[in-house]
Amino acid sequence: MQKEFDLINKILGTIRPFKAVEVYPKLYQGSMIFTKEDIKEVNDLKIKTVIDLEGGFDPDMNFLESYLYWPIRDVPWLPDKESLFTIGVYGASVVSSKRRLLVHCRQGLNRSGLVCGQIMSILGMKGTDIVKEITSKVKFGLWNPVFREYIKEL
Fold first, then answer.
1. Crossing angle of helices 145-152/127-137, nearest 10°?
2. Confidence check: pLDDT of 19 > 90
3. Does the domain made of 2-152 have the CATH classification 3.90.190.10?
4. Is the pLDDT of residue 5 over 60?
5. In terms of Cα–Cα distance, which of 131, 49, 33 is closest to 95?
6. Which residue in 31, 75, 80, 100 has its CB near the most CB atoms, within 10 A?
């Protein structure tokens, strides 16, 4: 199954231009932050907290209040569910306190969708509604069938 994931990642491209999409009020799902323009967009969106799921630290964004680094892989199995839930609780607390949160990975599709979905579940949404919401707003969002099924069952 890993070969199929590698092929899909190659087809989609390894680096997508930065994009942040609001998938729930004050919760943004996004791709990798590289350039000064990307940093400006994060700041312009008034995002103060970032959960970074990619395997490298983001450039300095001195306007952030919080930065949580939890590198996970886009593979056909889930990361540690207890850690995923804990990250979800943290994210839900940020959003509940009316602060804007960006969850991002490399492409902004699966890992960020998984964590955003966990956050949305903790905030009270049903799994099937979460999948519909994310996939309607993020093209190719949650295409990883393991991640999608996990969110769907929440």
1. 130
2. yes
3. yes
4. no
5. 49
6. 31
What phi and psi values does residue 40 have, to the nearest 5 degrees?
-60, -40
SS (H, E, C) the chain: CHHHHHHHHHHHCCCCCCCEEEEECCEEEECCCCCHHHHHHHHHCCCCEEEECCCCCCCCCCCCCEEEECCCCCCCCCCCHHHHHHHHHHHHHHHHCCCCEEEECCCCCCHHHHHHHHHHHHCCCCHHHHHHHHHHHCCCCCCCHHHHHHHHCC
Nearest to 9 by CA among 113, 106, 122: 106
Report if pTM > 0.85. Answer: yes
Tokens found for residue 25? 């009020």
Model confidence pLDDT, tens digit, residues 78-109: 999 999 999 999 999 999 999 999 999 999 99
- Residue 153: is its pLDDT beyond 70? yes
Q: Which residues contact 153 (CB under 8 A, 6 or more apart)?
A: 127
For the chain, give every domain's residue range. Answer: 2-152
Q: Please count the CA atoms within 13 angstroms of the CA of 92 that sit on its side-chain side.
A: 16
- Cβ 115 vs Cβ 85: under 8 Å: no
